[in-house]
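EI: anyone free to look at a 281-residue chain?
SC: sure, send it
EI:
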Amino acid sequence: MVHLCCRGRQFSDIEAIIFDKDGTLADGQAYLVQLGLERSHRLDQQYPGAGDRLQRAFGIDGNFLDPFGLLAAGTRQENAVAAATYLAETGCSWQDALQQAQDIFRNADQALPPKANYNPPFPGILALLEHLSEAGVKLAVLSSDSLENVTAFLEQQHLQHFFQGWMGAEPSKPSKPDPILVDYLCNQLGVSPAATVMVGDTPGDLQMAIAAKMAGSIGATWGWSDRPRSQSSLATNTLLEPATPEPQEHMGSMLSQKLGQTQAGDFPSSLAHSPGDIRVV
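SC: here you go
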């Protein structure tokens, strides 16, 4: 067991940390914006006007993606249901709407290069994982992204050896923020949730940590830029510009506000503005 420190908050007797992926480990904002635009454009081609509404539901505003919006925080299935809702308004049956939404999403996936190629770890993540591993902390990933994409990210970035377990969203199975997923991962790691800290970038991560009776939660504010991203085209196979490391006052304020709206009570929690804020002491 170790003592974990984050910006003055100490978490004692910690055996493991569970990380979110997009916005915490991986810089996926630029790719998600492109994916959301591709999906909404294809929907708009079939049903003019529906694409703009879907973009707003996704949380896309220009090149900015709301980190608390549907596309950033929801599962693929939840996003598909949102798209199907707009399709159902045209008069088609719900089953047809769901099928059309899935077809649109699949075609959008095929129009873009693999996500793992444009999903780099944030600056400081590798050093943090090395630091935690050397201290004997067990590590896992729990994401709303698909299990396939989680595995591809870890393999593409050569990070899988740091983690003793990982989970992603799978059809017809529980998804974040269901606390049963924390129990499953902790059983896989051989640790108790009470000795495990959650590190993520949404209020859902905090809510899940509270429900699972974890040792605490750290809100990562480094993962989302409030400035427009590079317009580099995915089709050119040029890596999209990652977020520029900077003091995240704006995102920290947004996340603090969201976390403040979550009933944490005396639950141990902190905010990290960079991966280096998280240390074993």
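EI: The radius of gyration is 19 Å.
SC: 👍
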